[in-house]
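Intended use. Records such as the DUF6318 domain-containing protein entry shown here are meant for training and evaluating sequence-to-structure methods. They are not intended to support clinical decisions.
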Amino acid sequence: MRAQVAVVALSAGLVVSGCTTADGPTGPTTAEPTATVTTTPTPSPTPSPTFDVTVPPERPEAMATPSADGAAAAATYFISLYAYIYATGDTSTWRQMSAETCTFCLDAAGDAEATIASGKTGGTPVEVTSAEGIELTPGEWYKAGLRVIQPPTIEVDASGNGTQTSDGGTYDFDFAMTWNGDWVIDSVGIEPIAAE
């Protein structure tokens, strides 16, 4: 079954403000980093469940481990928080996982808080079709990549009127991550994938 999470795009779309190429974490690195890659297979699709984006997502158990699998799980969890912050304005966990170097993370938190303050909400379910973690320095530096399919994004005002704010599409997310007893997102890069 394809992994499904609920995510909402920034009101200007995923490819706008704060989207950078993930240059990797800053700090000491080794000349020859050890790389371990874990890929989650993509089986046949099944019917999509309905998500309540006002309920915080559950942390996957794999996040407790500093490993390639843990990095992939943490990146997927972080993306699942995206819809939640836009639906509720509760950015506490999102901000806790965001490094000060992550422009995308901080811009999304501020935008979600401003959206809720204006009386609007969002919450568009998306599909994560693949998740891969890479261990750069064991127990310290990691990367993760997600491929995400997003339908058009709808923002709803206090009267229940919806406005489409992006056309949606398929995107590759690249995460640079640090393990310090828990996961910290150092940067996020987003690249749109052209329709075939």
